[in-house]
Structures are given as C-alpha cells and as structure tokens.
Amino acid sequence: DGGITQSPKYLFRKEGQNVTLSCEQNLNHDAMYWYRQDPGQGLRLIYYSQIVNDFQKGDIAEGYSVSREKKESFPLTVTSAQKNPTAFYLCASSIGAWGTNQPQHFGDGTRLSIL
Amino acid sequence: GENVEQHPSTLSVQEGDSAVIKCTYSDSASNYFPWYKQELGKGPQLIIDIRSNVGEKKDQRIAVTLNKTAKHFSLHITETQPEDSAVYFCAATSEQKVTFGIGTKLQVIP
Fold it and tell me: Is the separation of the CB atoms in B65 and B71 below 8 Å?
C-alpha cells in the first residue's frame, strides 16, 4: 500500500539536544510538508519542499531545519534553538504544490516531548 | 494572507442527527477546499473536497457546499454514527499556500 510513514511515534528531547523526525513517502509525490499541531490550534506550516533539493520556510520555521536529498524523504530536525518544541508533528505530501488543487496526504504524526 | 475561520469549535449531536460545520475564508484567490477528519493519535485524512467551479458535492452521508460570493463553505454529515466522532478541519488552498481552520471536535452520542 502506498502511504506516508513517520517515525518514531513518540520522541523525547533533553535540554540542548537536537532531534530528527523521519518522514518517508512511497506515493511518488513531488511536494512534502511539515506541520506543527498544538491543542486548540490549526496546523501551522514549518517547512515545505516542492521538489528534491529545494525547500522553503513556512510560517514558524525558527528553530527547525530540513533536508530534501531524496524525493521520498523529508526529515525534520528540531534544534536546541526551538524553545517550545513539545507538540504533535505531522508530515504530509501531495502530487504537486500549491495551485495544483490536490489534497495532502498525512502521516500519523510524531509526538515530541521535553524530558 | 489567507485567514480561515471555522465554527463551531465543538459540536455534540445525537446518533442519527445531522452535523454542520462552517468555514469562511478571506482570499478570493483560494480555489480548492478540502475537508479532513482526524482521529485521536492519527494524522488527518481527506474525506471530501470541492473546487471553486462547483457549488456542491456529495459522497454518501457527507456533503460540502461552497458559496464563492460569500466566501464560505460548509460540511454536512447526515445520519451521524459514533465512528464519525473526531476532529474535522477545513482548509482553503490558493496558488501560494493552504490555510487550515482550527478544527471542530465532533462528538456523536449513542
């Protein structure tokens, strides 16, 4: 089955530590996205990538970094500069980026907590 | 930028009744409006979508209506069932980005 896989499901970060969240898709989608979800808030865009080797900052990119070396992979690093990292992180992909009128397909998320 | 408002934030209905969730958007350039259902501990899943050249779309118990002039769109669920209990998100998509509503927590009471 085609889909999008996030790992791990739960992750704990110590003070001053960088952690990396994995996102892999086998849908052959060009575009991939990272969102942060906090209670009572909608999905906020952290980073997005419309094509391999290219990515753009979203609305809340500070304290995060990404790479897009392969079409199927879009890992997110939460750096020590992100002072409030506790949240539910969602990765998504779509056939094309904005303007293509296609839905996003989401993974089942990674819940990050501070130790 | 685009602003999407979603109402209500919580909704409780008796099993078998209908549920309606409403969203308004601000950017007239938005032309694609998906609805997602998110169950606890899971990612959002697309349940229905509508494009700006269509006024209404139906898929079994789920329907979406779009009023481009008023810039609002609504999700209608008929004959609700306990498994419909979840958080529902609307979204508005333009050439530049997709903007999500804050979500509606729907509880269907058996």
Answer: no
Closest CA relative to residue B79, chosen from B14, B24, B28, B21: B14
How far apart (Å, rounded) are the C-alpha atoms in residues B86 and B99? 20
Contact between A63 and A79 (Cβ < 8 Å): yes
Q: Is A69 helix (H, G, I), strand (E, B) or coil?
A: coil
Identity of the residue in A92, A101, A104 whose CB atom sits nearest the CB atom of B51: A101
Q: Taking 90 as the threshold, does the pLDDT of residue A57 lie above it?
A: yes
User: Shortest Cα distance from A24 to chain B (angstroms)?
Assistant: 14
How distant, in Å, are the alpha carbons of A56, A111, B71 from that of B43? Answer: 22, 11, 27
According to the model, what pLDDT value does residue A30 have?
94
Angle at alpha carbon of residue A14, lines to A10 and A17, rounded to 5°: 100
